[in-house]
Amino acid sequence: MKPLRLTSLGLTLVALFTTSTAFANSWYEIELIAFSRSADKSLKEQFDAPTQELKTSNAMDLMRPLVQPALADLIKAIPACTANSVTSSTASPAVSATVQQQIQQLLSEHQQNKQAVTAEPDALDVQSDTAAVAASLYQLNIQNCQMEQWDADGQLISRPLTTEELALQLPAPAQIPATFTGDGQAKEGAYLVGSDGLQLKNLAYQLQREAGKQLLLHTAWRQPLVSGRNSRSRWYAGIYQNETETQTEQNIDLMQQVQQQLAAVQQGQSGLQLWYSPWQFDSLVQLRLGRFIQFDGTFYLRQSDDAAQPAQIAIKQSARLTLGQIHYLDHPRLGVIIQVKRFTPPESTGTATL
Predict the structure, then answer these.
(1) Going by C-beta distance under 8 Å and a sequence separation of 6 or more, which residues neighbour residue 129?
(2) How many CB atoms lie within 10 A of CB 218?
(3) What is the pLDDT of residues 199-236, one digit of tens each?
């Protein structure tokens, strides 16, 4: 019986080793390039407009922490807060002025908005008391990582950050750079590659130089894929159409959209539904690992150079991807280039994940 037990133990160890190796080999590196094309006025095809918001509730978003970081992420950039204690009361943490300004601006705007909602002005005096608003603004004491607040009596009080304040996110930038990368540091879960990890730089450079093409996004990320399960991720780029744009521009876009949708309704093609993504380019990418890697992408592209088309176009593309090959998904207004290849994570990352 002893040999049998030893054999069983040996098989167990082999199975464990095989499982660990299989898990390590389930990592993949995905590189994505998206670019737009100028309108071809001779084209008679009518494109579809988005009829609903992208379903991103359960989609991975590796861009958000860099595009719209939460206050907690900015606090982590402060050495004194990260270390939990300051060795010297006279120490001056090396915090960039940009980080300090971002934190204080965010908290100031939050406090002003909070007061605007909760304030109940007297009916006999509807003038806002700007002095009271200014006196109660928050500021971050970089030295001891406490929030300092002037109360109504003019006393400076310190307190920890609340969960609500830590959850606040910075406003979206006016535009995202076309080449979007992270620090490239290996993590247990999915992460963005660094700028030196992009393999299709020459291809992206050629696209930038071609007339009639605009590079929207060039990025790459690494993640594990599990056979039979879908992996969804959201990627966006270009100009952010925020709420401060002029009403005239909004009316033009809406009227253009209404005209297109009404024409579609008359032809029995769709219902009258209006929806806009705030980004110039917005997408939901789905990968499924099986005998092939199944790619399904939904792309929303905002355009303004063809009045005969919707202000925002909805494009869906599907393909079976072969590992290591560069795949090109073509559309009259949008081009997508994607490459998926195996990636072997560092030993420490694979071990920690198990």
Answers:
(1) none
(2) 25
(3) 999 999 999 999 999 999 999 999 999 988 899 999 99
Helix (H) or strand (E) holding 141: strand 138-141
The most confident of 93-102, 154-163, 238-247, 291-300, by mean pLDDT? 291-300
Shared domain for 156 and 185, answered yes or no, is: no
Check whether residue 184 and residue 142 sit in a common domain. no
Please tell me whether residues 54 and 107 are part of one structural domain.
no
Domain of 336, in residue numbers: 28-64+173-353
Same-domain check for residues 239 and 307: yes
Same domain membership, residue 206 and residue 190: yes
Of the ranges 11-15, 151-155, 260-264, which one carries the lowest mean pLDDT score? 11-15
Choose one of 130, 150, 167: the last residue of a domain. 167
248-to-65, 238, 268, 305 alpha-carbon distances in Å = 33, 21, 30, 17
Residue 10 lies in a domain: no
SS3 (DSSP) at 100: helix
Q: How many domains does the structure of the chain reveal?
A: 2
Number of H helices, E strands in the chain: 10, 13
Q: Which of 334, 330, 314, 298 is nearest to 260 (CA)?
A: 314
Tokens 């709420």 — which residue? 243
Structure tokens at 33: 């390039």
Close Cβ partners of 226 (under 8 Å, ≥ 6 residues apart)? 26, 289
Whole-prediction pTM: 0.74
Maximum Cα interatomic distance, the chain, rounded to a whole number of Å? 95
Residue 200 carries which side chain, given as an amino acid letter? L
